[in-house]
Amino acid sequence: MEQYTGHPLYRKHNIDSAMSSLWEFYKKYFIPLFITSFAMSLVIQYATTLFNFQDLQTATDPAVMLDKLRQMIVPILLISLINLLFTNILQYYVLYNPLDRSNNIFISAIKSLKFFIPYLIIMILLAFAGGIAVFLGFFVIVIGAFFAMLYVMTIYLFILPVLMIEGPNISNAIPRTLKLAHKNFWHNIGWVAVFLILMIVISIILSGIILLPFTGSFIKSIVNPQAATDIMDKAKSPLFIILSALVSAVTLPLMPIFSAILYFNGRASEEQQAVIIETVPEEPTLRVEDLYAKPYADDHPDNPDRKKEEEDEEEL
Q1: pTM for the whole structure
Q2: pLDDT at 193 over 90
Q3: Rounded Cα–Cα distance for residues 249 and 34 (Å)
Q4: What is the crossing angle of helices 116-140 and 170-182, to 10°?
């Protein structure tokens, strides 16, 4: 772990330093992160146009909706795999390029592949466990469901850094991820909440900007729901795909950077605590024999028996 102490994100953070480090790292590595994210977004945006999701969005009958959803499982899984693959590449670049400049985005794409299968398996397990947690959260109150989603998101952010730094061993990665996520639990949850709010606000603002050329169609779809198909057609236009990809490229790099900050903060906290424990002097252990007076040799000047004999001799 010593090599990672030189990483610009490695330190014990507070919320201010975490956000400051996020911004500084984002600015310094913006160009390669933006280009990679833009390529990823173009692929995903284009892939969504190849499949007819319009029928799923316009279906009102639950039975029809479920039937349409079953037909969309393969396209949805394909798009999800592409998303996970690019996320894997970005995370590796964020973790290793600052330590070794030879780990450019292309080298990172190759080296990160060995982590993809373990990452995919853990994501499947997390999706299953997270779905149960959110479902149970709805039985408490709606706030419980939001907290469950926030909790699952916090765990998710630790997964890739743990795999890439501590090894792609699933049996080790899962408990290690949980341990780091639960260490300073409320701080982690709070930071993730703040981060997600910032991401949502930025995405809304940027999405509003790219919708400006399509405002007429968007307003028509609100006034006349039958015109909603027009905006769906607009979403397949090259201009919309490029603009949407640009928006995604601005926000996507923030996730792996913040993930690295959470991980390094947890590791720095652990090592700081270990140093404190080592520097605290160990208190001597109290032994049973320490509770009793130690016996003296016969010729010891403080031997009470000898003192008594001397006093008796003086009296005589």
Answers
A1: 0.77
A2: yes
A3: 5
A4: 40
- Please give the Cα distance from 188 to 133 (Å, whole number): 18
Q: Which amino acid, one-letter code, is at 71?
A: Q
Work out the burial of residue 49: count CB atoms within 10 Å of its CB; fewer than 13 is exposed, 13-18 middle, 19 or more buried.
middle
Q: CB neighbours (10 Å) of residue 297?
A: 9
| pLDDT in the model for residue 137 | 67
Q: Is the pLDDT of residue 3 over 50?
A: yes
- Which position has the token pair 């500084």? 24
Q: Roughly how many angstroms between the first and final C-alpha of the chain, as a whole number? A: 79
**C-alpha dihedral sign at 22, 25, 28, 30:** negative
- d(C-alpha 233, C-alpha 309), whole Å: 115
Domain chopping of the chain, boundaries: 2-281
Nearest to 266 by CA among 196, 189, 192, 188: 188
Per-residue pLDDT reduced to its tens digit, 133-171: 777 766 666 667 788 889 999 999 999 999 999 999 999
CA 70 to chain centre: 30
Whether the Cβ atoms of residue 6 and residue 52 lie closer than 8 Å to each other: no
CA atoms within 13 A on the CB side of 195: 29
